[in-house]
Amino acid sequence: MNYTKFHNGNSMPSVGLGVFRVENNDVAKDAVKHAIQSGYRSIDAAFIYGNEVKVGEGIAEGIKAANITREDLFITSKIWIDDYGKDNVQKAYEKSVNLLGLDYLDLYLMHWPGTDLDLLLNTWEGMENLYNLQLVKNIGVSNFNIDHLEILINQANVKPVLNQVEFHPYLTQTELRNYLSKHNIKMESWSPLMNAEILQDETVNRIAKEINKSPAQVIIRWNIDHDVITIPKSVTPSRIEENFEVFNFSLNDDQIKRLDALNENKRIGPNPAEFNG
Ligand SMILES: NC(=O)c1ccc[n+]([C@@H]2O[C@H](COP(=O)([O-])OP(=O)(O)OC[C@H]3O[C@@H](n4cnc5c(N)ncnc54)[C@H](OP(=O)(O)O)[C@@H]3O)[C@@H](O)[C@H]2O)c1
Fold this sequence. Notes:
Layout: E1 3-5, E2 11-13, E3 17-18, H1 26-37, E4 42-44, H2 52-66, E5 74-79, H3 89-100, E6 107-110, H4 117-132, E7 139-142, H5 146-155, E8 162-166, H6 174-182, E9 186-190, H7 202-211, H8 215-225, E10 228-230, H9 237-242, H10 253-260
Parallel strand pairs: 3-4, 4-5, 5-6, 6-7, 7-8, 8-9, 9-10
Antiparallel strand pairs: 1-2
Helix pairs in contact: 1-2, 4-5, 7-8
Domain NADP-dependent oxidoreductase: 23-264
Family: Belongs to the aldo/keto reductase family.
Keywords: NADP, Oxidoreductase
């Protein structure tokens, strides 16, 4: 498995499991457990997904089944916009930690920038407090564009370790990727499979045939080859396994270029400059 190193010296697995749109029942628990048994060490949760209890049960069962310890895992959650504000951050963090049945998180993210930039900065101060108190191992952001990051970096005492954004071959985020790289902030991709839409693409399928891999494996490998951390979601055991079998091959430059050329700046999620929860 690959790990990606942050500017603060910590690191996280380059491929993890996403759990958005998974109900808070045994489907969530079993998917997380199966992922951990299959070798995954990173789980991407969020308070707003409403499934932290069952995700937490899956983590506990996965630790036992794989005979590993909590410290072997990298667990992310995210503060939702309703909980923003410096003085609310620790309470929101403890809410997620408790729902997940954990003692700490490896990464806590601001889920969206929101449209109130003063509130954004004020909330980041709360995130910094959490980090400085060593309650959380790493802090980061999600859905921040360059404008948001400029504002944040100008004021921040602690730089985010990563920015989790929509990223797939129809939305290659080149400008944002270059900006993040310049500032030594990692990019993490959400909806890397474009919620399965990109798996139908002709070029993706042609490349998959060329290298005898599945379309999903091509996309996940393309993320790794671009130094983008990724968290494909699946509740299907065979797909969970398939999406993790991506460390024993790579794409050649021509294949990477052909995937990059699919960019249409097409989003399936909201525009971060406008979304406010
Ligand atoms: N920060 C944010 O604002 C934000 C927003 C969206 C998502 N996220 C995070 O990113 C994660 C991933 O994004 P996502 O859940 O939107 O979508 P995704 O990972 O792009 O796609 C998931 C879909 O692809 C299917 N799939 C997975 N592996 C497959 C394979 N090997 N072959 C065929 N189909 C496959 C899944 O089906 P089955 O499950 O039925 O197998 C599911 O329908 C989320 O779960 C969440 O953790 C974050």
